[in-house]
Inverse folding.
């Protein structure tokens, strides 16, 4: 079995063996979730961009149901330091690799009411404009809202390169949102889209009233 991509070809067994050699580093990334390990769980799909010599040119989080930015960025950093066997023909190639994490299940998780979340997003989403543009494509966000109403863990994924500093700014901003969706003793999980261009919350200036002309 081979992994065919845009140009080069990598053998699936070689890819698996190489990544498994870094298994401890990958598993250690979950420690970056901190207290969110009580409830954050899911799959992170990584896209590797591999050079003709086998080195990882870059790694993207293209899909994620985990919902923790620190863990996702840790996986990216680990992936960037992995060197694979050179693709056949020494041509650049890409492939995707899923990583799954389980929580300790100390806190129950329930999906939040989508309608209520949309009302909150209408208020809070414009705040993210000040962070800058995250990526050229829309991003997928996963947030876990703790009983106090604040997101305790937030993750981002996008099928393109993203600005990591902008991503961190957005995650920090989202964690300050006081959401109306909350439930005692439960963590509410929600997903939403972050568009490439976010409209600001600044009100448009009111048009000036036309002066009435006086008749003489």
């Amino acid at each position: 079995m081979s992994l065919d991509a845009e140009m080069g070809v990598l053998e699936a067994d070689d890819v698996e063996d190489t990544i498994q050699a870094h298994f401890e580093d990958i598993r250690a990334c979950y420690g970056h979730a901190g207290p969110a390990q009580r409830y954050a769980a899911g799959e992170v799909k990584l896209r590797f961009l591999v050079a003709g010599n086998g080195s990882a040119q870059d790694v993207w989080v293209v899909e994620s149901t985990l919902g923790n930015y620190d863990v996702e960025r840790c996986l990216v950093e680990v992936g960037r330091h992995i060197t694979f066997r050179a693709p056949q023909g020494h041509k650049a190639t890409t492939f995707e690799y899923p990583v799954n994490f389980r929580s300790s299940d100390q806190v129950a998780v329930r999906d939040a009411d989508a309608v209520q979340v949309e009302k909150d997003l209408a208020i809070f989403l414009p705040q993210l404009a000040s962070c800058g543009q995250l990526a050229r494509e829309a991003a997928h966000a996963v947030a876990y809202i703790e009983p106090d109403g604040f997101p305790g863990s937030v993750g981002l994924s996008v099928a393109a390169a993203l600005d990591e500093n902008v991503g961190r700014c957005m995650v920090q901003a989202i964690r300050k949102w006081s959401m109306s969706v909350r439930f005692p003793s439960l963590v509410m999980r929600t997903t939403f889209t972050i568009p490439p261009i976010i409209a600001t919350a600044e009100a448009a200036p009111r048009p000036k009233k036309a002066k009435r002309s006086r008749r003489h």
Summary: The chain has two domains: 2-101, 108-194. Strands lie at 2-4, 9-11, 42-50, 56-64, 93-101, 108-111, 139-145, 151-157, 186-194.
